[in-house]
Structure prediction request, 351 residues.
Amino acid sequence: MEAKRNDDQENLIFVLKYAFPEMEELLPLRFNLLNNIKFNQPVGRRMLSGTMGYTERVVRRECDILKDNNLIDYYPDGMRLTQKGQEVLEALTNVFYKINGINILEQELAKKLHIKRVIVGSVGIQDEQVSLNEIGYEAAKYLSTLIDPKMIIGLTGGSSIEKVINGYKSDWVHTEGSEIMVVPARGGLGNKSEYQANTLAEKLAGKLGAQYQLLYTQDNLSRATIEELKNEPNIKRILGNIAKLDVLLFGIGRASVMANRRVLEQEEIDDILSKGAVAESFGYYFNKDGEIVHEISTIGIDLDIFKNLKNVIAVAGGVDKADAIIAISKVNPNLVLVTDERTAKKIQEIL
Prediction:
């Protein structure tokens, strides 16, 4: 029955696409408008015009149509989706995926990368922040399918992972009475507290009603300092849980960007890049073939643990990360990649 329903939907989409060719222009426009409103609400027309690249006249016209159909409402502080608008957006997402062949793109890319799965969480969205929010939301939904009453979840910091935690809904999975533990998979990095692994571990634990542990130390320390810290009881407990992770949620960084973020000396940065490094994760720098070309001392998850994990979720968007994503995908075949359409197509083009 489900197969027949899918066939009927695909036939309808095929007919609409050719009987109403204007739909190919209007569908992405209204889809993007609804998505932008969803992640920016309450939002005004001027802001939408600026972030989406459409004239204010076009945005006004299309938003009036959406309002007339009870998909959005106008408020003094801006526009918001209605319940009907949310439902239509979810249905429209499925239609849009099929029209653009996203499901096929996901399957083909997973095969080419030799990984478990690819999820294209953002389609046809031009605004970088909205796209990242959409990717984070889809990664959060996938994470919810893995939740088990007795499990350890590890996560790194960064803006991509922050969007995942923000997107996770506490009512997706019933976790009352569970023994879930959430731990940071690395120490602190950078200056923004909202992006720190500790902050995000505590926030996710709150949504899951889970226990959590915090790693009160910087990520990049000298090897001697790290060895000394490993004897601290609290850190020893956290590292013990990291070694037993059931799920890891992490972001992928470009080698050049992460080297600067770790405030490495310019001589060391030049050395890393001269070795062909394109990606960084957990203090390891990888070339395009997924080989380690440089390693710095960090505290938290190590490569041996990462390679053996069965549930690994990488969240990364932006075409400038395509090479980095390809490199990291070669390290663990159990990887599930959540990215955006443009990045997925760029990776496919490279491969």
The mean pLDDT is 87.
